[in-house]
Amino acid sequence: MNLRIRDRLLLVTLMAAACAWCGCTPPASDAGSSRKPRVALIMKSLANEFFITMEKGARAHQQANAATYELLANGIKDELDVGRQIDLVEQMIAQKVDAMVIAPADSKALVPVCRKAQQAGIVVVNIDNKFDETVLADSPLRIPFVGPDNRHGARLVGEFLAKQLQPGDQVAIIEGAPNAFNGVQRKLGFEDAMKAGGMTIVSSQSGYWETEKASQVVSALVTEHPELKAILCANDSMALGAVAALRDANKLGAIQVVGYDNIAAAQRLLQEGLILATADQHADRLAVFGIEYALEMLKTKAAPADRETPVELITR
Description:
Elements lengths: L2 H20 L15 E8 L3 H16 L5 E7 L5 H13 L4 E4 L8 H9 L3 E5 L5 H6 L6 E3 L2 H13 L7 E6 L5 H17 L2 E7 L4 H14 L3 E6 L2 H13 L7 E3 L5 H8 L5 E4 L2 H18 L6 E2 L3 E4 L1
Helix pairs in contact: 2-11, 3-4, 6-7, 8-9
């Protein structure tokens, strides 16, 4: 036998014996690995109670399915920090996760980096805020959206509000970020309901999803429009800001407020009658819906398709 071959065989035998003695196993190749898939969850602002609830729901699901997959969850501090969210996606690509479930802060700006993730072999699922269909088509790219019909949910809230008002009453809309598809859809749903009820929309401005910014907008609105009867907020964080501004202006009860998301803080105000209605899109399950679909895609290799999730009207 060739001495070099004999030496190599001897080395392999010694390594195997050493592994057997210490209880370890030789490293497996990637092709033969049976490791659990790693799923990354990338959210928007973790300062928003909605996304805190989303993360808790996802972690609880992973703990109940610990033998099935690993979870890497992260989010941005500021609802508008698109650059930071792009960096998070880049990090997940570098870590070679198997799947990524993302609630994009911007419906357009996150598309290129998600395309990069797909090209790296990562399954990408879009939740909460839908990617812009035109930008996806131009890429070209197919990313499934798992989430509710935001326009429908906002219309449910608006229709309930309209029943408490009179035709011709003045109302205002506090929109989400203009670069977010779900914000645009909620504005449209509010408009659908107000127009159908014969209300007069005197203002529609962005509060950029944030309590403080919404409070500033509403403070100005109540001065500019003394006959204002209602404010429709595209999320509950902004509804909290609206209530704070109305309290400062001694307008609580005189102007109705509705929101969207059914966060715990809004539920308390709902019971107190300070918020009239909101919409529940089940924050604790929304990421789970996306994770379960991502795991299904990893297993079946099926072509991606959108999946609509429930949204419900919540009142006192």
